[in-house]
Write a structure and sequence with these properties.
7-stranded mixed beta sheet; 6-stranded mixed beta sheet
């Protein structure tokens, strides 16, 4: 399923979103000494390195340049033994689906218990305001099921799990070592701050904005101000920017939500090069 879905998005969604000023992914490179990013068209996947361990956050598309771009960062796919999954959409799990090349077949997948219900067929993923049902995703990797508020330790890396339902029923975000919050498809950065993710792709839009507000409340109550690292629109260390429009949703049809600095066609990767990946840290937004 992942190869077919990947090709559909590369072709059809490129035409659909061209000129909409919606997608603004990071290019391949390092955010800082701990966090690396690989760009796969409009999507980003991330790697967190601490000591001798590198964990992966989301597994992107079924993307034929993944190993190549990882090599730009000095990361060997064989070194990846742990992958955190925010949710099961193809642009976040393609590299571990059953029809993928199998770069990470020996890695354990960490995924929310509620989100896993999609993978075992208890529920089906629906988009476009519930009008379109997506095919079931098949993954054969060992899975570790997670719960809201659970804290796990991987080789001295502390990972806290927050359930943020709305985009999918079991969407998780991960706070790593108290500093980096990997948000998947929970927050969408426009030019003037963060919004809830694209309205047409959510299981429940009202729940999505409610969850986003609850996430902010949890972080503020604990005095946490992490890096907010998104799946499609870069990162920020500005909490006010990240939650500026938490009660609103990104829509391709509402111009003011868009970012005039976004690429005309984010599926064109010609500016994502090895030279740039090695030329310095990736800049954040809202700073």
């Amino acid at each position: 399923m992942s190869k077919k879905a990947t090709e559909f998005q590369r072709k059809a969604m490129s035409r659909m979103y061209r000129g909409k000023e919606i997608f603004k992914p990071l290019n391949t490179g390092w955010i800082d000494e701990n966090v690396a990013c690989v760009r796969e068209w409009v999507a980003n996947i991330f790697f967190y390195r601490k000591g001798d361990t590198t964990i992966m956050i989301d597994a992107g598309y079924n993307y034929d340049r993944l190993a190549e771009k990882m090599s730009w960062l000095g990361i060997d796919p064989k070194s990846i033994r742990h992958i955190l999954i925010t949710h099961q959409d193809t642009d976040h799990v393609g590299a571990v689906e059953a029809d993928s090349p199998g770069l990470f077949r020996d890695a354990a997948l960490y995924i929310g218990e509620i989100e896993n219900r999609y993978l075992i067929g208890e529920v089906r993923r629906r988009v476009i305001y519930h009008l379109y049902k997506l095919p079931q995703v098949t993954i054969n990797n060992e899975k570790v099921l997670l719960h809201d508020g659970e804290v796990i330790d991987i080789d001295g890396i502390r990972i806290e799990c927050f359930l943020v339902p709305g985009h999918t029923w079991g969407h998780m975000v991960y706070l790593v070592d108290g500093k980096y919050l990997f948000t998947g498809d929970t927050i969408w950065f426009g030019a003037d701050g963060g919004y809830g993710f694209i309205s047409g792709l959510a299981e429940d839009n009202r729940l999505a904005v409610k969850s986003l507000a609850a996430l902010e409340e949890k972080l503020r109550a604990r005095g946490l101000r992490p890096y907010f690292i998104t799946g499609h629109t870069g990162w920020t260390d500005n909490m006010e920017f990240a939650f500026a429009h938490k009660n609103e949703l990104c829509s391709p049809f509402r111009k003011r939500v868009h970012d005039p600095n976004a690429l005309y066609d984010a599926y064109d990767e010609s500016d994502d090069t090895e030279e740039k990946a090695k030329s310095g840290y990736l800049k954040g937004v809202g700073r």
